[in-house]
Amino acid sequence: MLAVHFGAGNIGRGFIGNLLFHSGYETVFVDVNAEIVHLLNEKNEYKVVLAEPGQQEDVIKNVRAINSAENPDQVIEAIAKADLVTTAIGPNILPLIAGLVAEGLRNRADQSNRPLNIIACENMIGGSTLLKEKVYEKLTKAEMAQFDDLFGFPDSAVDRIVPNQTNEDKLMVKVEPFYEWVVEETKLVGEKPDIPGITYVQDLVPYIERKLFTVNTGHALAAYFGYYYGEEFINKAMENPQIYELVEGALSESGEFLAKKYGFNAEDHAKYIQKILHRFSNSHIVDEVTRVGRSPIRKLGPNDRLVSPARQYSEVIGQEPVNLLKGVAAAFLYDFQGDEEAVKIQSTIEGIGIDKAIETFTHISSESTLFQTIIEQYKLLKENK
Ligand SMILES: NC(=O)C1=CN([C@@H]2O[C@H](COP(=O)(O)OP(=O)(O)OC[C@H]3O[C@@H](n4cnc5c(N)ncnc54)[C@H](O)[C@@H]3O)[C@@H](O)[C@H]2O)C=CC1
Ligand SMILES: O=P(O)(O)OC[C@H]1O[C@](O)(CO)[C@@H](O)[C@@H]1O
Question: Which residues are listed for NAD(+) binding in this entry (predicted)?
Answer without folding.
Answer: 3-14
